[in-house]
């Protein structure tokens, strides 16, 4: 059993418990059901933005504690002031130290797309995502049968949420890409050994159909890497650890984005 299998097994149990505690009828009373979602895809494609989705991540299976007592209010605001295009908030508790309240805090203080980064296996979690103010959800190809993934994607779209389809290889991409998905994320982290390699993104870039918004996820630690990924056709870059391992993640993001923009300007001059 790899770590993803373990997380998913825990998630099914958690969802069954939450359904009892907070029934769908209750979640549907949330005011966020009246609020239109902010498009992640649109923000990633905006030329005035960096394409960075800055993540709030307290801990992880690969690194253990990263920034367990982070202030979500301060960090989310400073990420957006630094020039991030969107926020990603890990809401999984057992493996990532997150909670729904983290996303609700980020929602309260920011007008920007927010990805609920969790391990979605059931429609209930999609209703929950909408009820806490998320704009997009994650569906992981390695965790779902293709037909089930399509069903969940269609359900998310029916609530106005965007779907980020996460793949690790060509087979997953070919099996799961469907009409309901317009944003694909390539995860550079091998979930068997946790090794990250951005070549995973570079190798898959040309296999993702034109018209799909492409995101490279995990293990990005240098602004130069973003330039390479952008040249390969990526529109978005999901970054957690690199920022979160700093006591002030927003400052780390600001320095990173400044350098990225300088590199892009140099690239334009020399083109
Ligand atoms: O981060 C992990 O250790 C991990 C392990 C198992 C499943 C998922 C995991 N991470 C979730 C993510 O997708 C990342 O948080 C995200 O892509 C950002 O990655 P990074 O910039 O490397 O923190």
From TrEMBL:
Alphabetical GO biological process terms: L-tryptophan biosynthetic process
Enzyme Commission code: 4.1.1.48
GO molecular function (one): indole-3-glycerol-phosphate synthase activity
Catalytic activity: 1-(2-carboxyphenylamino)-1-deoxy-D-ribulose 5-phosphate + H(+) = (1S,2R)-1-C-(indol-3-yl)glycerol 3-phosphate + CO2 + H2O
Keywords of the record: Amino-acid biosynthesis, Aromatic amino acid biosynthesis, Decarboxylase, Lyase, Tryptophan biosynthesis
Superkingdom field: Bacteria
Enzyme class: lyase
Domain Indole-3-glycerol phosphate synthase: 4-250
A Pfam family this chain is assigned to: IGPS
Pathway: Amino-acid biosynthesis; L-tryptophan biosynthesis; L-tryptophan from chorismate: step 4/5
Signal peptide (residue range): none
Gene3D superfamilies (alphabetical): Aldolase class I
PROSITE patterns in alphabetical order: IGPS
PANTHER family in the record: INDOLE-3-GLYCEROL-PHOSPHATE SYNTHASE (PTHR22854:SF2), TRYPTOPHAN BIOSYNTHESIS PROTEIN (PTHR22854)
Protein name as annotated: indole-3-glycerol-phosphate synthase
């Amino acid at each position: 059993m790899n770590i993803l299998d373990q997380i998913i097994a825990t998630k099914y149990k958690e969802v069954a418990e939450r359904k009892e505690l907070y029934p769908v009828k209750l979640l549907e009373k949330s005011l966020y059901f009246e609020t239109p979602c902010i498009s992640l895809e649109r923000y990633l494609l905006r030329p005035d933005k960096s394409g960075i989705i800055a993540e709030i991540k307290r801990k992880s299976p690969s690194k253990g504690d990263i920034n367990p007592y982070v202030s979500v209010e301060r960090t989310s605001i400073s990420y957006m002031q630094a020039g991030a295009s969107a926020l990603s908030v890990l809401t999984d508790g057992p493996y990532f130290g997150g909670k729904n309240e983290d996303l609700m805090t980020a929602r309260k203080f920011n007008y920007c797309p927010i990805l609920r980064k969790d391990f979605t296996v059931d429609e209930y979690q999609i209703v929950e995502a909408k009820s806490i103010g998320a704009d997009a959800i994650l569906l992981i190809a390695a965790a779902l049968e293709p037909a089930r993934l399509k069903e969940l994607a269609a359900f998310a779209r029916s609530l106005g949420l965007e779907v980020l389809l996460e793949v690790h290889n060509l087979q997953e991409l070919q099996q799961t890409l469907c009409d309901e998905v317009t944003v694909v994320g390539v995860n550079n982290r091998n979930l068997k050994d946790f090794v990250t390699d951005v070549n995973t993104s570079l190798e898959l870039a040309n296999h993702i159909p034109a018209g799909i918004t492409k995101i490279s996820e995990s293990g990005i630690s240098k602004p130069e890497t973003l330039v390479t990924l952008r040249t390969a056709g990526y529109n978005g870059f999901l970054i957690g650890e690199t920022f979160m391992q700093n006591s002030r993640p927003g400052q780390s993001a600001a320095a990173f984005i400044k350098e990225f923009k300088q590199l892009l300007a140099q690239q334009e001059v020399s083109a």
